[in-house]
Specification:
Elements (H helix, E strand, L loop, with lengths): L3 H15 L2 H8 L9 H34 L11 E5 L8 H4 L3 E2 L2 E12 L3 E2 L3 H10 L3 E7 L6 H11 L10 E3 L8 H19 L4 E5 H7 L10 E4 L14 E8 L8 E6 L3 H7 L1 H10 L1
Parallel strand pairs: 1-3, 3-5, 5-6, 6-7, 7-8, 8-9
Antiparallel strand pairs: 1-10, 2-3, 3-4, 9-10
């Protein structure tokens, strides 16, 4: 039988245990910031804010600062003296009288790549007009094919060869590869190689491979493909990160040039104007004959 005195004693013991110094210390020790000096707390908070600002700038601001500058007319192009553009029907009607006298960072438009075909049955609606005017205005021209993963490479190559008549003063044909589609890496490389081989045999000159920096390093780097002259697209940077050999660098898609109403891709050639001329079909054929 539990007496009233026994119950009171139990309650006192329980109350004393619940307020013991050991239990109070354990509860307080779970939050170390309560005992930290105020100046250390402020210092920690400022450090966290600074780290966040740096992360935000590098992730969301810096990669696009070159584009923002281009859009607001303060872009500075990378150093170089041989510059050009690439165009398609997206540039709409071009004022060639203005374009032939236009300047890109103090240099004329030395070359123009024109979109010709895509897949096995798409001819750019402005190709013939643009290709003709480039030659008529004494600008070194080239033509490119946009590669599709929806049709066989051999049929795409034959379609390009059928639709594009290149002359000795023109730049070599270009294959533009931007997506992998449902292909594996190995399948994509095999298809690209097929296109290049057919076109090289048809025109008698080594074609140029166009792709982005990340796509090139991820999918199109191999001994067989590295033999082709490379045209790299890599925007919003001070210098090209690609470490392999390259002929052209497409450094912005927000260029402005007289004669074109909207924005246009601007490219830098890795060499002198004489080197550019020596890259043309006639110059390469002549060199091959001499060798």
């Amino acid at each position: 039988m539990v007496t009233k005195k026994t119950v009171n004693t139990t309650r006192k013991t329980t109350k004393a245990a619940s307020s013991s110094p050991r239990r109070r210390r354990k509860k307080g020790s779970s939050n170390p910031f309560r005992r930290m000096p105020a100046y250390l707390l402020w210092g920690l908070l400022i450090a966290v804010v600074v780290v966040y600002i740096i992360f935000f700038y590098r992730t969301f601001v810096n990669p696009y600062s070159f584009r923002w500058k281009a859009l607001y007319g303060t872009v500075k192009y990378p150093d170089g003296k041989v510059r050009g553009i690439d165009i398609s029907h997206y540039q709409d009607e071009i004022n060639w009288d203005k374009l032939r006298n236009a300047q890109l960072q103090g240099t004329p438009v030395h070359f123009i790549f024109v979109k010709a075909t895509e897949g096995t049955n798409v001819l750019d609606e402005n190709f013939n007009q643009n290709f003709h005017h480039a030659r008529r205005n004494d600008i070194i021209r080239g033509a490119y094919h946009f590669f599709s993963t929806k049709s066989p490479a051999n049929k795409q190559a034959k379609y390009f060869c059928k639709m594009v008549q290149l002359e000795d003063e023109d730049l070599p044909p270009v294959l533009d590869v931007e997506t992998i589609g449902d292909y594996s890496k190995e399948k994509l490389q095999s298809e690209v190689k097929t296109w290049m081989q057919i076109v090289e045999k048809h025109y008698g000159v080594t074609p140029i491979l166009y792709t982005s920096y990340k796509f090139k390093t991820s999918y199109l780097t191999s001994p067989e493909l590295d033999r082709y002259p490379c045209w790299i697209a890599h925007y919003y940077i001070d210098s090209l990160a690609y470490k392999g050999e390259w002929k052209f660098w497409q450094h912005t898609d927000a260029g402005k040039v007289d004669g074109i109403k909207g924005y246009v891709d601007v490219n830098l050639f890795n060499g002198t104007y004489e080197d550019l001329v020596n890259l043309t079909i006639g110059a390469q054929r002549g060199e091959d004959e001499m060798n």
